[in-house]
Amino acid sequence: MLNTKLKHAIDERHSDLSKSFTLDWSQELSFLDDLMAEAQPAKMGLIDVPLHRCHQASIVNAFMTLMQFNLSLDPAAKLATMKVAVDHQHGYAIAVPEVLAMGYLVIASKAGLVKNAKGSLIFEGDEFQFNGFYEYPDFKANPNSNKANIQGGFVCAIMADGDVLTSVISPEELHAAIDESLFKKYGGVKCWSQADIRDALEASIMRRFLKQAMTYTFANDESETLLFELLEVHTSYFRSYNEVSQKQSTGYNPRHKACVSEQSSTLLRALGHSTRLPKLAPPEPQEAPEEAPELHTHNGLGLTDLFGLQIGLGG
Questions:
Q1: How far is residue 136's CA from residue 297's CA, in Å, rounded to a whole number?
Q2: How crowded is residue 221: how many other Cβ atoms within 10 Å of its Cβ?
């Protein structure tokens, strides 16, 4: 799938990467080739559009964006991927970089922000109690929980300075995030699988955590810039959509959005969607505990256990 012309266009950008690039370039090109061959096509109207049929420049840009953060396309690592979207201004298919939950955590660790973390979707039957933004939550996953009924999600982390930070997101907010992504970022493409939806839910929880961490946890200028640029990989598409909408009276189609909303609602119901958790109020200022116990010794929270994946961040 990685034709000679596209490979040449990507290779020409290799020199754009800084000295901090540590991945195996040839291996990443191989991962890209596999992804383009195996990625599920997106449906644009009645047409199925595979990733390799996207605008070539968008494929190059999406790939280079991920490489700039050292986010490998290795499917086993689950750090990042690429998906098909519709360019709002021109109407053709483009490839967009998608940072997965583990990718966000790895970059947060490299930025010196996080030591280790636990993140999970919360299903009906799980035991969860939110105890405050600077406290450990009580969480116990139930192996027999109803995976067809999502109650929300959370991330709890030990920060680099030893403080505990917990971020929680409600099912309503998760639903809204998916709905907005399908319409504004992806242009209403169809054929998102349940795995795609789950990846998007987990990434939404991690973005909420990072935004909270940048607000309430000290970070030096370099780390703050790195995390801001990482979040921009996602949010820039929404800003682009808003700019196009302002210029074109036809940039916003309520009927089209309703169709997208119906699709995302159906997919979320298939994966599991509930509205039992209320939205969180803005946090009240709290003093962080003087000493934070190790994450893996408290309330069943696993050491660097993010959405069922175990990794070692060091530190």
A1: 11
A2: 7
Rounded distance, CA 273 to CA 112, Å? Answer: 34
CA distances from 214 to 137, 142, 221, 278 (A): 20, 32, 11, 23
Three-state DSSP class for 128? strand
Buried residues in 163-181 as b, exposed as e (16+ CB within 10 A): bbbbbbbbbbbbbebbbbb
Residues 45-62: tens digit of each pLDDT: 777 888 999 999 999 999
**Do residues 272 and 150 lie in contact, with contact meaning Cβ atoms separated by under 8 Å?**
yes
Give the max Cα distance, the chain.
Answer: 59
- The structure's pTM equals 0.78
- When mean pLDDT is compared across 145-159, 185-199, 247-261, the lowest value belongs to 247-261
Closest alpha carbon to 108 in 195, 27, 212: 212
E strands in 125-163:
127-129, 138-140, 146-159
**Helix (H) or strand (E) run with residue 32 in it:** helix 25-38
Rounded-to-integer distance, Cα 222 and Cα 27, Å = 29
* Three-class DSSP category at 166: strand
Give 30 or 115, the one with higher predicted confidence. Answer: 30
Name the phi and psi angles at 217, rounded to 5.
Answer: -120, 135
Contact 35, 86 (CB under 8 A): no
The answer to whether the CB of 219 falls within 8 A of the CB of 111 is yes
Cβ atoms of 254 and 129 closer than 8 Å = no
Tell how strand 80-86 and strand 146-159 pair up.
unpaired
- The CA distances from residue 260 to 74, 87, 178, 180, in Å, are 30, 16, 10, 9
Which residue has 């986010």 as its token pair? 71
Pairwise CA distance, residues 93 & 85, whole Å = 6
Distant-in-sequence, close-in-space partners of 243: CB < 8 Å, separation ≥ 6? none
Most confident option among 41-55, 58-72, 108-122, 299-313: 58-72
